[in-house]
Design brief:
CATH class: Alpha Beta
CATH architecture: 4-Layer Sandwich
Order of helices and strands: EEEHEHEHHEEEEEEEHEEH
Strand content: 25-35%
Number of strands: 14
Shape: globular
Number of helices: 6
Radius of gyration: 16 Å
CATH superfamily: Ribonuclease Z/Hydroxyacylglutathione hydrolase-like
Oligomer: single chain
CATH topology: Metallo-beta-lactamase, Chain A
Distance between the termini: 30 Å
Largest sheet: 6 strands, mixed
Strand order of the largest sheet: 1-2-3-4-5-6
Length: 208
Amino acid sequence: MILRTLQVGQLASNCYVVGCERTRQGIVIDPGADATLIQRAIDEADLQIDLIVLTHYHFDHIQAVGPLQESTGAELAIHMQEADLLQEPPALFRYFQPDIPTLQADRLLTDGEHLTVGDLEIEVLHTPGHSPGGISLYIASEKVVFSGDTLFREGIGRTDFPGGDMNTLAASIRERLYTLDDETEVYSGHGPKTTIGWEKGRNPFVRV
C-alpha cells in the first residue's frame, strides 16, 4: 500500500493519499486544504485518483475538494446522512470558515460497503458521534483504519458541533473501532497515528 500523510490548513487536518502499489490506483481521504500540496503528493506517488472520500462533512476536511476534482476528475463520496450537509453546512461553521464550498456528492456510502482501489479493499464503518454520518475506513489486509475525527491518539472528536453526541461517539469507538485487532494502526483526522491496542489501554475518554 502507498500512503502519504499531509497536514493541511490552519487547523492542521490530516489528509491521506492512499494507493495500490501494483495498479497505481488511489484515493484521497479528507482533502481539507492546500490542493497544490496534495496534488504534488499524488503526482510524486504516480497515482490515478478516481475517488475522494470524506470521513465527515466538516469545513476543515473539505476545502480542497473542488480543485482536486478539477485536476483529477475524481468522484466525491460521503456517508449518505451527510450529503445534504455538504450543500447546506450549519451557519455556525461560517463563523470559523466564511468561504465554505458547496459540494455535490457523487457517491453515497453506507455502513459495511466496500470500496475497491486496485488490490486494496476498504470497508466503510459508520462511526457517528462527532457528526451524524461520520465514517472510518478500514483496510483489513494492511491492518490500518482511517478514523476521521472519531478517535485520536489519546483523544476523541468534539461533540459540541451540530449533530454531535458523546454517547454515540463512545459507542462507535467501543463497538466499531475497539473491536479491531490491537495491532491495527489508526490514522486520524488530526495529530499523530496510534494503534487500537494503545487507545484501549490509554485513551482517557473511552476505555474498554
